[in-house]
Design brief:
Elements: E1 8-11, E2 20-21, E3 28-35, E4 40-45, E5 48-54, E6 68-71, E7 74-80, E8 86-90, E9 94-100, H1 105-115, E10 121-134, E11 139-154, H2 164-199
Parallel strand pairs: 5-11, 6-11
Antiparallel strand pairs: 1-10, 2-3, 3-9, 4-5, 6-7, 8-9, 10-11
Length: 200
């Protein structure tokens, strides 16, 4: 997978949401690239789970002018919005994807792989405009997405390399939280030493 470091990649985390071929419509596949307000664990450190969620309104101002449909975020384009073979729709659950894979022999072969259950998951690539972080729940909320680049059928669980941007974000968060905890402990120790000095 050719990872571009200027964007983030996520695979939909809900086990009950699969990318699937529609039995009653030739070469049509559908699925969800993401769900809204549904925290998923991205990173675990020292027993703490660091989570992320996509806000329901994150895509309101996003550039989705020509999203493309890929396999593992690289290679041949199987469908795209500009020629009408790919549609993406926001609904109450998440970002719904519907692709017509009838255009080429390669896209029809991709359809057959999805229909056979060999490819069952979806991922998407995007850049973040605005986010926030809740220290109590250790949850990052993506509030505004700048651009959606592609939605991608994926055959294997997310490669850790695809989460470079997320890991970078949480590495910074963890470092800051540890620094604050050290400062808090040092402050408590200073107070305790002072109290012991006053008592003696």
């Amino acid at each position: 997978m050719a990872i571009k470091h200027d964007r983030e990649y996520r695979m939909v985390q809900m086990p009950d949401i699969q990318f699937r071929a529609l039995e009653d419509e030739n070469f049509i596949v559908e699925g969800y690239a993401t769900t809204w307000n549904d925290p998923y664990t991205l990173y675990e450190f020292d027993g703490i789970k660091y989570q992320e969620q996509i806000d329901r309104n994150a895509l309101m101002e996003a550039d989705t002018s020509d999203v493309i449909f890929l396999y593992n975020h690289e290679g041949m384009v199987y469908a795209r919005m500009s020629n009408g073979t790919l549609t993406i729709t926001e609904n109450d659950r998440g970002l719904y994807i519907r692709a017509d894979l009838s255009s080429t022999e390669a896209s029809r072969q991709m359809y057959e792989s999805i229909k056979a259950g060999l490819v069952t998951q979806m991922s998407w690539a995007f850049t973040v405009e605005e986010d926030s972080y809740n220290e109590k729940t250790h949850t990052r909320s993506i509030l505004k997405i700048r651009k959606v680049y592609d939605v991608s059928a994926v055959s294997i669980p997310a490669n850790p390399n695809t989460d470079i941007s997320a890991r970078s974000f949480f590495d910074g968060v963890i470092e800051e939280e540890r620094r604050r905890e050290r400062e808090r402990r040092e402050k408590v120790e200073r107070i305790q030493k002072k109290l012991k000095g006053d008592i003696s």
